[in-house]
Amino acid sequence: MKAMVVRELGGGWVEEELQIADPIGQEVLVELKASGLCGSDHMEMSNEVQYPPPAVLGHEIAGVVSAVGPNVTEFAVGDHVAACLVQYCGKCEQCLDGEPGLCRSPQLTLRPEGEAPRLTDANGDAVTQGMALGGFAQQSLVHENMLVKLPNDMPFAQAAVLGCGVITGTGAVLNAAKVKPGEDVVIIGAGGVGLNVVSGAVLASAGKIISVDLNAESLEAAKSFGATHTVNSSETDPVEAIKELTGGYGVRTVFDVVGIGVTARQGYDMLDAGGTLYQIGMGSGTDTLDTVPMQNAFNRKAVQGVFMGSGVPKRDMAMLVEQYQAGRLNLDDIVSGELKLTDVNKGYEMIRDPKVNRLVITDFS
Ligand code: CXF
Ligand code: ZN
User: Fold this and answer.
1) What is the 164 CA–ligand 1 centroid distance (Å)?
2) End-to-end CA distance of the chain
3) Hey, CA dihedral for 68, 71, 76, 80, is it positive or negative?
4) Is residue 40 lining ligand 1, measured as CB closer than 6 Å?
5) Which residue ranges traverse the bilayer (predicted)?
6) How do strand 19-20 and strand 119-120 relate by DSSP bridges?
7) Domain map (residue ranges) of the chain
8) Closest Cα to residue 165, out of 364, 362, 356, 363?
9) What spacing in Å lies between the alpha carbon of 304 and ligand 1's midpoint?
């Protein structure tokens, strides 16, 4: 099959012919129809975090099942499916407690040691499958735990983006914060994930949905997704602005989708008593937030991390498909454009423009 392979860090994606193995165990072979370009894969290509080259990256996928392993129970050939990168066993105490994102044995979604690799190159050498998905290719071999069945009339591009930014943003609101109707929320950051937090707040019937960003165009996008108020933090102190919008109190729920020291501080300082700052953004990876335990105790303030929407991907993605099909979830404006598989490098240039949300490969020829 044709795949776009990272051969060396920083070297971009190169077209190659690879072999993909036949499914064993609970593996499902998916003929890809859509594969989204996410910033995490660009980071991985530039500066490997987890998946050493040679690697097939790409983790926002949807397609049609073309073969199943002997132990697959949920899927059959011809099923339309989408994937989520959360790897979970379904059996450990975290999974059984409804926290697959905290699974103790995520490696059970991979091939056991001693088995042939899922992907090999023309020399027969193993090729890494990024995020256990390897979506920049014509096919993907995936553990069934990572797949969800789609209705046949769900468009593949919109389905592909569900399993990363959409589930992360909407899940923060619905699973982590459990926002109630009428509750005011602040979302710091109106990029790809931030817009999906806005969508989650709309689904939850939040009260004021206040989007904060430095970029006026991003704030316009947030409005089009359902933000009721916007604050441009390049023009005004966002903490003051939030207090003004909320009778001087601040809000009980703030989502920081940026995750640098400055936004964490702002988010915490926007909290009303009893409020929680939900940390979603990965930021610099090294910034910190100081809080005073006694003040947290007196004012009952909390800081909570959220990862991949902190939910149950199969359940959440099925719910999001229903919301999309009922016209209540905006996925059409998340998909900014469609690409050919061989245009991955060009696509990553294009998504530097903040007006572009997700680009999705839909032509695998
Ligand atoms: C990522 C976030 C960083 C760790 C790997 C998964 N999520 C989506 O791209
Ligand atoms: Zn992603």
Assistant:
1) 8
2) 10
3) negative
4) yes
5) none
6) antiparallel
7) 2-150+334-363, 169-307
8) 356
9) 17
Q: Ligand 1 within 6 A of 203 CB?
A: no
Nearest-angstrom CA–CA distance, 75 and 322: 19
Residue 185 tokens, joined: 């929320």
What's the gap in Å between 189 CA and the centre of ligand 2?
A: 16
pLDDT digits (tens, 9 = 90+) for 87-126: 999 999 999 999 999 999 999 999 999 999 999 999 999 9
Quick one: which ligand is closest to 37's CA?
A: 2
pTM: 0.97
Atom 1 (ligand 1): residue with closest C-alpha? 40
Atom 6 (ligand 1): residue with closest C-alpha?
Answer: 40
Find out whether 256 and 267 touch, Cβ atoms under 8 Å: yes
Q: Which helix (H) or strand (E) holds 68?
A: strand 60-68
- Give the C-alpha separation, 136 to 133, whole Å: 9
CB-CB contact of 34 with 360 (8 Å): yes
CA distances from 162 to 46, 104, 157, 344 (A): 24, 24, 9, 19
Separation of alpha carbons 109 and 84, rounded Å = 12
Fold observed for domain 169-307: Rossmann fold (3.40.50)
Tens-place pLDDT, residues 292-340? 999 999 999 999 999 999 999 999 999 999 999 999 999 999 999 999 9
- Tokens 């991390």, residue? 305
Angle separating helix axes 238-245 and 261-269, nearest 10 degrees? 20
* Structure-token pair, residue 4: 């776009």
Q: Can you list the alpha helix ranges (DSSP code H) found in 3-92?
A: 39-46
State in words which class domain 2-150+334-363 has: alpha beta
| pLDDT at residue 330, as a whole number | 98
- Measured by CA distance, the residue closest to atom 5 of ligand 1 is 40
